[in-house]
Each structure stands twice: as C-alpha cells, then as structure tokens.
Amino acid sequence: MSTHAAHDALGALALRREDWTRPEEVPAAGSPAAEETARRRLAEHASLLPIADGRATARYMLGRLRAHALETVLMVLTSTLAAVLAAVLPRLIGDAVTLVGERDGDALWGLGALIIGIGALQAVASALAWAQVSALGQRILAEMREDVIDRALDLPAQTMEQAGIGDALSRVADDVDVTARAVNNVVPTLVQVSFFVVLTFVGMVSLSPWMLLLVAAVVPLYVLAGRWYLPRSGALYRRERIAMGARAQGLLSAIHGSPTVHAYGLEARETAHVAVLSRTAAVLGMRVIVLVTRVVKGINVPENIAIALSLVLGYVLVHKAGASVGTVTAACIYVTSLLWPMMMTIFTLDDVQSAAASLTRMVGVITSIDPAASPGEEVPRDASIELHGVSHAYGDDAEGAERTVLRPLDLRITPGETIALVGASGAGKSTLAAIIAGTLLPRHGRVLHGGADLAHADLEAVRAHASIVSQDVHVFRGTLASDLRLARDGASEDELRAALGRVGALGWVDALPLGLATEVGEKGHQLSAEQAQQVALARVLLQDPRVLVMDEATADEGSSGARVLERAALAAAEGRTTVIVAHRLSQAQEADRILVMADGRVVEEGPHAQLVARGGTYARLWSAWSA
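That's the ABC bifunctional lipid A exporter sequence above. Prediction below.
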C-alpha cells in the first residue's frame, strides 16, 4: 500500500462509537464502508455548528481592524519603514563595493557607518513592527475568544446538545490556539515579508530594467509551487480542524460517561473509539508534512535557477552593458535576499491557511449567532402561557427522518396556576416544559408569554419573565455569593441570605468554612446534589421571574432529600405560574392541574382528585405510587 493510500485508509476511520459494538468490529482500513462512514460522520460533525466562508471571515476581520484603526495605521507605517530600510541596504552595500574598487577610504568609512546605522534602525523598526502586529492580533483574538464563548452560551440548549460540547470546546481551545500561534509568529512574518518583497522588486528594477528577466523567470515557478501546494494543504487543514473537534467530543464523552463505561466494561470500546479519532487527526497532520516535503523539493529548482541567472546576468551587465561591479553586487544581493522571503511567503500562507481554517470556525459562531438580536419587540404583559398548535420533532435518526416527540397541542395556563406534567419516560414532558420555558423553539405552532409571541418577542424580556430549573444543575467556580449573584448582580448579602433561607439552605451555608465567601464549584467546596438544587432555587428567588418551569428538579434525591427539595421548590414557586415535570407524584398531587402525557400527547387533564376518581391512566399511576 502506498503512503497516500495508507493515510487515506487511516483518515477514513473517523467513526462514532455507535458504528461498532467491539473494537475488533471496526471496518477494515481503506474499505469502502469505512471511507463512506468517515465522510458521512465528518460531514455531520462539520455541519453541527456554523462555519463561515472566506468572504464573511474577511469582512469580519476588516471590521475588527477598523475598530482598531489607530493601531492598524501605526503597524502599517512601522512595517513600511522597516521594509524600506531593508530594501535600501543592498544598494548601499553595492555602493560600498564601488568605493572599494575606487580605493576611496574616507568615503568608504562614512558609507560603512551609514550602513551600520540604517541596519540598526531597520532591526529596531522590524522588532517594533513585529510587536505591533502581535499586540494587535492578540487584542483582536482575545475579543474573538470572548465573542465565541458568548455566542456559544447563547445557543439554544438543544442545539448545543446536538452539536456536542466538544465542537464548541475545540473552537475556543484548539482553534484559538492555532490562531494564536499564527498571530504570534505567522502574521508578523507575512506582513513584513510582503512589504519587503514588493520594495525589493522596486529596488531591483530601479538598478536595471534587465533585472525583470530574473523576476519573469523565477517568480512564476514560485507561483506554480504555491498554486499546487496551498489548495491541497488548505483542504487538509479544514479536515484536521473538524477531526480535532470530533476528537475533543470523543474524549469528553468518554470522561463524562466514565461511571457507565466502568459499570458495563466498555473500556476497550471507548479506548478504541478515542484512539481512532486521535489517529485520524494525527494522520491528517502527517499528510500535510508529506506535502511540505514535496513542495520544499520543488522550491529548490527556482532558487538554483535564480542564483545561476543572477551570475550570468551580472557578467553580461558588467562586460557588455558597462554596469559597475557595485551595481551588479547590489542586484545579486537583492536576488539572494528574495529567495528566503519567497519561500517564507509560501509557508507563511500555508500557516495562514491553517489559521484560516480555525478562524472560519470561530467567525462562523460569532457572525451566525447574534446574542443582541431579538426576533421582535413584544414584551410579556402578565404571567399567562398559551400554546397554539404546538408540535415538535427531532431529525436525528439514522436516515435523517423526523422523530416526532410532541404532537399538535393547545394549552392555556392562567397567571399563578401550577401545572404538573406526568407520564412515562419519552412521553414528551421535558420537550413540552422546554417549549413552555422558551428554551426550545417548537417545530410548529405558537408560544405566547403574557400575550407576547416568542417568535416576535424581546429575548431579554422573555429571559427575565421565565426561568427553568432542570435536574442537572451546574455550580459555577467561585464564591457561593458570586454564584448566587449570577441571577441578580448587585444583590446584597442580606438578600442572598433571605433567598437561601426560603429554600432551607441557610443551615449548611452557615456551616461552610467561610459562609457565603466559600469557594464552590470546580476545585472548591463540593456541594451535594441537594445543596446544588437549593442554590439553583435560591437563584430563582433572586431573579424573581413570573414563570417557573421545574424539569424533574427534585428527582435525584432519596425520600429525605426529596422532601427537603419539594419544600424548597414550593417556596420558589410561590406566587408564580409554575410548570412541574413531576418525577414524584406527590408533587403532582399539589398542582392545580395535571397533564398526563403519553406518546407526545396529553391523554388526561384535570386536578388530582378528579383524575383519581376517573380511574384512568393517572389513577393507575397513583395507585402504583401509593402502594
């Protein structure tokens, strides 16, 4: 098997864990099945979060440069000065050679001092230009990193779940890292080389128009090398970025699901899955190295041709055209000084392509998701909820067909009413709760909060109007007080303690080493699941929304913990329109109205006593629960 065939075979193994049951069942490397699966899986991963095209990326970067207009202008001026000084030096060295031939020692000493001075000034200008380019790039990159995180956090929850946190993480980690290296090393080189090449060509032609022969003979060879190499490496870099995102997702999935992996003995399968994803990313990098080796071999040809032609042309200019040795020396220095920049231009553009592949992924998130944009200006007037013809489906099965999870539904919830959603797993309860909360847009139908259609509402107003507490609660790293103030910045310590007291959390909070100043979250004091839920409910009290949706917010605890959380949930729900996805029927018993769901439909509706007396689905569930 050839080197490229081996690389293609390995690159084809970008598979997800569901593509095999055991490691030995991985499709044979290079087989049509493996290659087709790899293309399909990488294509799916590439389309999860948006990727900008080159034109959109260029517009975005120009906008960033305009935002830093003063720094950009200073950088261009300094880079131009450095390039002008570098282009002047060969001419001065040629003049020095002429003075040596004329044996004019006094003038030679003065010219030598001038060359040293200009050389020192050129070094200072180059260093300053490099620093300016790097500083400007890092400033823009820092802003982009913040924007990517901001936009990613603004994504709907279901979009992030479908895309996978690994893809988002790779964009703020791998992609930022690649772009940062380019900003520190590649972009300053490209800027300075570009100015130097242009001005050096001007200097060559000003010495003698015959030097255009060298340009005409050599430059096309570099252009051909670049045209052959850059498109091939650019495509590989894009695939490599996607593979890196898939690798990050695979690692996160394996680590996050480690208890299940250990429980079912899936270590070998998960290891094989991560190994395949890692090998895919590594092999794509190896393919780039192969291309680099081939293009370097090709570049040696125009370099040798340039040196040979400069010697021949120099001889002709001196002996046939009457040019001075100093002039020819300056011309030869120009030629040889161009060889390195021309090669660097190709490889700098190569690195720029690698960074551009990452940049398009970052810009895709930034420009495609606008957190400041709202569908409209409608604002909820009260705490009522209305659903008209609402249904939802996911298109995530193997054939890409829709999987209906919620069938057409009309529902009205009056201000202050408490609704409980009851049913078996997969009945559509969580989907309906997310739609009511406004975190999930239904495929069909209208959702109104206080008369405001969410499709035309002010998003900030909706977020302040409705809040959702799910079964999975995150405790952010920092002090407990700062974690609580996420709901209301500037809340006083008395207000924090009052909220904690209402959800029954003051006892354990006061027992913490530093009370509200105790560090919690990652690398801090670890809160139990019950305590984390109490913190989440305290945040609700601080936010004070009109509508509260609790998606099995008390489902994880045992009987004692569940009772504590039920009391906390009742305190948080007091005076609000409340929707509860009831894992425990004791919660449903206290609701004003119960919706019993099955197969995406509401099959029964009414208060607890009425449904029990009816003897239907809810009555059977209640009987089993009571028993």
